[in-house]
## 1
Amino acid sequence: MSNIYQTSWWSLELPSGWFGTDDDGCISFANVDGVGALQISAYGSGNQEVTDEDLEELSRSDRPQNLTTEKVAYGQFVGLGICERTVTGYWRKYWLRAGSALLFVTYNCSLEHEGIEDDKVDRILHSLALSEWVSESEGLIH
């Protein structure tokens, strides 16, 4: 059993037990019995398409210089991602784009829980879709 979480820019499918809350500036997702938090912030660039160069520039300011990004694809979005271990815990960070939409996605948990929810987080992220009105207004859906 799963449910769809819809915003004006994007949507995703949440597995059973997961819920979303609208926090200040982002949407937070967690499992009722989970160990971490998935957060998504969305930004629009008007009618201008977000580029790989935009993602590279944005990611540079939010990752250690010694950590290189990997290309990722989740649902209708593509972008860059990193995984890192810090004193504050285990982090997955993604800069994703589709049309004029830019998503900044993070997942974090304590180091001792690293990897426990990775499969569920991947499944959620693979369900990411651009909202229909954004796709239509940009000519992405015919």
## 2
Amino acid sequence: MLTRFTGDPRAMQVLELAIVAGSFALVLFRAPFSVPVRVMIVAGYCLGFEYGVISRGYGLGVLALLLVLVALARPRPAWGAALAAATLLAWTSLAGAVALDPGPRSAPRRRFVLGGLLVATASALTCLPPSDFHAFTPSLGNFATIGGSGVTRFVDATTGIWRALVPIPARLGGWNSQLLDRLPAAPWLQALASVVLFALVLAALPRSMGRRLWWLGALATWGFFLVVVLPDEARYADVVFLLFLAALWLAVAPPGRPAAAPAASGRRRLPAVVLVVLAAQVVALVAVAPSLAFTPFSPDQAVARAARAAHLQDAIVSGEDFDATAVGAYLDRPSYSVARGAWIRFFVHDDLEARRRARLTTAATVCAAAALAGRLHRPVGAHHPGGPAPPGRRPGHARPARRPVPGDAGRRRCLPARPCGAVAPGRPGLTDA
């Protein structure tokens, strides 16, 4: 929605601030837990940093999930409001397309479950990639390709529970790392730890909607990791923490019944499990957030600032579209993609981009930039990958072409005074980002 008005990512930050404030308010004032538990949840890594400080679309899914929980966990559940929030959840995140309860016992509850299944199925179907989109998610929608890396994929998919519930990094500031990563056979150890954690949480939860949600959701997220994306980065793995929070919420405050304190919920081990998980979340926040939240987070923002200072914001040529779209967002301008041969505002990781990007060299990017400079009769900025240059040439700066090519239908080719990719000593014609 914001891109209809501006491409500036700072607009995302304003919206994310409102979203995370709403999420924190729901936890602090409506969650059926003690005050220390509520504070630990919002002061934990998942809600506090990964889906809070970092401005991404995942925060909207968190808010939708909390609205579902608030609507359900009351003596008289608001099934209609819960279904509306669940619809928003399913259409915000594919991982959120999970039905909450397999056993409807009343007409409103039945409508909620069937409606949730309908919107979840529709959401999942819209996420199936087209036929020319294999590079980014090679397994999505095609079970025959699962296990492209053999047993490793199954093991890595199993590590999600451990990586989400115990996100303590391997070192201070080690974003997207995990405490066990440095050990030999780390994936196998993390997979084993995930199985143990799953069993401990399952044994601690009382027989309730929350317990069913935990084991059904754990199975569903394992399938999600296996088919769609591995939990190697925190934003993917932390879906399991949201599942844990939802299961705990509905176990303590089952729909249609008054809320009960965790210690009185029928499982003496539940408070201990909750304390360990939330303590790990707080430790992870302290270990990661200070070094990342108060330093420049996006190098693309710095590139955009340099381009604006050099008056190149209207002419950025990119050999790396993923970064180029971010630079262009900070400039609120499109970037020229060498791989796609077009001006782009959004990153499209289809087969065309992947195939051409794999063959793209630094020299080719510089040549394309010089050609554009010739057409525009002005300097342009080149944002290129660090790929290999042709033999005998070094990546660097090239001067823009100034003269047309006869008989080329008005177009201009790359005709610099020296070979493309060669360095012009002391005369940088293109801004090398």
## 3
Amino acid sequence: MKTIKRTKLELCRPILFLFLFSLLADVRYAAGQTLPVTQYPLDSWSFYDTNAWTTDIGYAPVSFTNLNFSFAGDYGSLVVDSTNAAWLQYNVIENDGTTNLTVNQGSVTLWFAPSWGSTNAGGIGSGVWGELVDAGQWTSNATYGWWSLYTDPAGTNLYFSAQNNGGTQANYLSAPIAWTAGQWHFIALTYSSTNTALYLDGQLATNGTGMTIWPSSGVLANGFYIGSDTNGLTQAHGKFDDLYTYNFVLSSNTISSTFNAFNSYYYMLDSWSFTDKDGFWASDFGYSAVSFTNLNRTLGDGLALLLDTNTAAWLRYNVVESDGRTNLMVNQGSVTLWFAPDWASANNYGSGPGSAGELINAGQWTGDASYGWWSLNVDQGGTNLYFSAQNAGSQTNYFTLPITWNALQWHFIALTYSATNTALYVDGKCRDGC
């Protein structure tokens, strides 16, 4: 695995409140991706079976090595990201005649999250040609046969190419990409004798020429690979989920509707339902807290986190996990949570929390803004809700929202933020930045 620097996300300060937190939604029980009843795939790979890596209709791989599983994705995904050779190989045609992949006409759709960032997006790329779906083997003189959807070493282009065994190669299409590590993308490739097309995140990225060459049946008898080539060295270095193959060209409407129906499962970073019974306060995707102290549970939607003590109390998570999983983005994103104070606002016959209270917090506030801080917080009287940040001597209060809250009353809070706008929703209504 590539080593990624770990930073910290903290839910801290000894304020008194009840806390139920999630990023967008709880998807622990999200169903596998489904399709319109009139359109049937050849096969599909949801990667729920992490022992045998069988397809969704029960076909075992021909061989595999050095694979891993991640909780990321639609409740679990395949990880092909190793410093050693790694591959996952399936038959193109099974012994009973079932076809898993057609190379002259069809469609392939998949979700992919790179463990690397593109060089044109501040990253270093994967460093190798990365095969997403691959059959045959590339050779410099095109004497064997090859068919592949792949990225370049810089991670700046996505290609679809093929070779036959007669010395001919065709680069059917290429599309520029600028990806960040850990971010999911929906990729859809369609191909036929008249046209090839590539869709990224539900939108047409590019068209190419029609299919004219592909590997021979003898080459295809050796199967195809997900995430690498036959040698396991040109790895895509990332996570795969919900891969589907078809023997016909999917319509653009089907591709866009599939992306729109399932993007929330892949664009959600993580969620916290606080139902972990093992005492590690693990997220819904299975990532344990870095540290915690003086926490309890109370009732909410099932169980909820209770952070309510007169001594130091906190619950801290990584911003970026050691496997590249991102739990929080501070420059663009959304945070949603349910929160019930144990205090009433000072403007509602109460006294507030008595000190500034952090709902979600990264970094540390300082008087001269010399360290760095990012926070959704309330004031000591519980009369205002703030979204603020500090960096390099500068502080910004993006908004201040007056509140009048009762003790033990739940409120749904949704914060959205980007380079162009910040907005705050309370109990389903936009209250600031609309």
